[in-house]
Amino acid sequence: MSYFPRIASQLYGEGVALSDLAQTHGTPLYVYSKKAISDAFMAYKNALGKHEGLICYAVKANSNLAVLGLLAELGAGFDIVSGGELQRVITAGGSPNNVVFSGVGKSHQEIQFALEVGVKCFNVESSPELERISAIATSMGKTANISLRVNPDVDAQTHPYISTGLKENKFGIDIKTAPQVYEFAQSLPNLNITGVDCHIGSQLTDMTPFLDALDRVLALVDTLEAKGITIDHVDIGGGLGVTYRDEQPPAVHDYMVEVLKKLEGRNVSLMMEPGRSIVANAGILLTTVEYLKPTEHKNFAIVDAAMNDNIRPALYQAWVNVENIGPSDATAQSWDIVGPVCETGDFLAHDRSLSLSAGDVLALRSCGAYGFTMSSNYNSRTRAAEIIVDGDQAHLVRERESFDDLIKGEALLPKSNQ
Ligand code: LLP
């Protein structure tokens, strides 16, 4: 089913005409479908079935409070990488007991906060981090559950910027040295070893690298068992890709079946950290055509959204589908969709055949993940508003930023005496 159907030549978000949303709330505007998010999450949860485990949504993909609140209600855990993300989860009604804390650079303050609220587990990425967590836990009289993020050295065959499982990446602990690091963890006070985790990259469209990584992780679990170190859970990270254009990633269910097969007969629970595959296709970005600027070489459609609103095309040459939300009488031509930011790299799409007039509203599909969360205020642009549609209802879940938001906390220098 389509969560953004076209009905009588008008594009909808569930049962809400996107033209109405653009008119009421202005553009650029992120619109998410509640049902798309729920269905995508439930595909994971249902596939897990009765197997012990937890689906920890990767907050970085889309951290809007309403999105987190919805997922918490559906029984999600959360994968966080900062104190800010942890605060968001708590504010949205999520339980810290269902939170795994990932990331290479956890600060003293963040670890202390995570221990205070009682996160489920720290996914630890280095020996110095183990020492830091142990020292802080000891000073607080607490015990920290830890898992080591190992680097299984498999090639995720995705964009180099979002591939994380190779030994030259900054992430994780080399799986070959992991047994020694586990022994080191065992020697430190106030740490409780509970798991092994890995995350090999993002937007993977083939499950082979995931399954290879899992094989290596399970071999490590066996090595650890032999050393008397018991592992309760394996966390295989996130990374399952989505269709932006014509990619054909495995269905969540099929992927999970293969993963669970590998865990058969083992007494370990399964944790996962999906982000993109839960929210990417649940969101679109609406933008209005400001000017049409045909030139001798290229036709530019200058729109009101820019790289600050959605940096994925500029940063990863990511492809997003662009369509006019309404009918158009204009002749179809090839257009570059570009924003107002003063950078040549500020584009959203190249060479798209579209029928366009100034004032038309365009929808950029599949922008629900790493869209708003990677947006910035570059060029002193206020960040977009966000809406969740639910049937025929639309909820404003983030106001458009104002100029006051933009300068919050800034100050002028004192007046000089001259
Ligand atoms: N767990 C860890 C430890 C991660 O680093 C990530 C993503 C995830 C889970 C979630 O992965 P997902 O299921 O979303 O693929 N900004 C890039 C993606 C960066 C992903 C970073 N880590 C993009 O827009 O493509």
From TrEMBL:
Entry similarity comment? Belongs to the Orn/Lys/Arg decarboxylase class-II family. LysA subfamily.
Q: Which GO terms describe its biological process?
A: lysine biosynthetic process via diaminopimelate
> Which PANTHER family does the protein's record reference?
DIAMINOPIMELATE DECARBOXYLASE, GROUP IV DECARBOXYLASE
UniProt pathway = Amino-acid biosynthesis; L-lysine biosynthesis via DAP pathway; L-lysine from DL-2,6-diaminopimelate: step 1/1
Residues covered by the Orn/DAP/Arg decarboxylase 2 N-terminal domain: 36-280
Enzyme Commission code(s) on record: 4.1.1.20
Name of the protein: Diaminopimelate decarboxylase
The residues the record assigns to binding pyridoxal 5'-phosphate are G239, E273, P274, G275, R276, Y370
Name of encoding gene: lysA
Does the entry feature the keyword Lyase, yes or no? yes
Query: Which organism is this entry from?
Result: Marinibactrum halimedae
Cofactor(s) needed by this chain: pyridoxal 5'-phosphate
Reactions it catalyzes: meso-2,6-diaminopimelate + H(+) = L-lysine + CO2
